Amino acid sequence: MKKALTALFFMAPCLVPALLPAPAEASAKATARATAPPQREPRDGEAEARLIEIYKLIGQAKPREALRKAESLVKDHPNFQLAQLVYGDLLAGFTRPLRAPGDVPEITASKAAAPLLAELRQESLLRLRALRERPAPGTVPSQFLALSPRNRHAIAVDASRSRLYLFENTATGIRLVADYYISVGKSGIEKSVEGDLRTPVGVYFITSNLDPKSLRDFYGSGALPINYPNQLDVKRGKTGGGIWLHGTPPAQFSRAPLSTDGCVVLANPDLERIIRTVEVRSTPVVIAHSLKWVAPQTLTADSKSFESVLRGWHSAKSSGDIAKLTAWYTPDFTSYGKTLAEWTPALQTEIKQLGGRDIQLKDVSYLRWTDSTDTMVVTFGELVKGAKTGRTKRQYWVRQGSQWKIFFEGTI
Prior knowledge:
Elements lengths: L1 H8 L6 H4 L3 H13 L10 H14 L3 H14 L4 H12 L20 H20 L7 E2 L11 E6 L4 E8 L2 E13 L16 E4 L17 E3 L5 H5 L8 E3 L11 E3 L3 E3 L1 H10 L6 E5 L4 E2 L5 H20 L2 H5 L2 E7 L2 E2 H15 L4 E12 L3 E11 L6 E10 L2 E9 L1
Parallel strand pairs: 2-10, 4-8, 7-9, 12-17
Antiparallel strand pairs: 1-11, 2-3, 3-4, 4-9, 5-10, 6-7, 12-13, 14-15, 15-16, 16-17
Helix pairs in contact: 1-4, 4-5, 5-6
């Protein structure tokens, strides 16, 4: 692809008469556009797919067809700045050799335009990288150790590729259904303090779906907040909030790769697809510097191993032995601000109310996050045997040597 683009940038000027429409032809096209019916609403990923098709045509040395499709793309999406750049390059390439994407003659270039051109070039490289470096079919991010039937969908963000991946959790396993270009914080990722202009990394969940009518145009088609800071973030002293997946303002189809205040931003048609698809509170969102893609069967051993750990905790709670149960928790355990000592009486009351009845765990999911420590985010329904309803709980576990311990537990 790189060689093909280079070939475009050095196309001979003698090709211009054969590729540019004659005045009469241009007039006829203008008349047709004026009388054409309104364009239908764009589908998610459609504009990018059309841009990639243009890149492929350039690589196949089909400049006439590439120009025609580029003209159509910018007509349908006049706010798609990268598409405008490619269209301009195609036109300019017929009159002079080009040195790079967005090759503006120095006599007309301004210092103010240089940062924008650099951002558009980086966006182009990342979109092309996503085309070249597709995850192997059937693979999943390593964080998705086990999803429950309640997790009907899942999202993973690879910041290094400016890419968001949308999954469906089916009866036969997790299936990648779509992926989209995204923008993250101006200062990159690994948010730690409020106002640092970074996007957090970790395991999160969509907490709500904000009505677009309540939002400024800046947020585009809507917003899906996530639960930053999560309990691991809180344990690590991270601050800030208001991290959303949201859209773009009307004047922008997409934003530069590093351009947000910390949110994950998508083109509006892509965000609309996600909003229509995912469920609030049960959809996990993994944000990582880069995703490790693995075959699902390679996660089975770790999933089974942790399942036995959870069974041990479950057995201790069912036994009613508070000392045996609290041994599963770290000394610095917290539950919404309560220390282990402050939380233990409530746990004792809960065990007493069981009256010796067994506890059943339903719809268990394990999501793993590994950086300087090994953490497991566990969500399950807790139902007392014989009861019709129960509570949904979430635990955060940390590996300490060869043992797993709980450092947070709460009802969600």
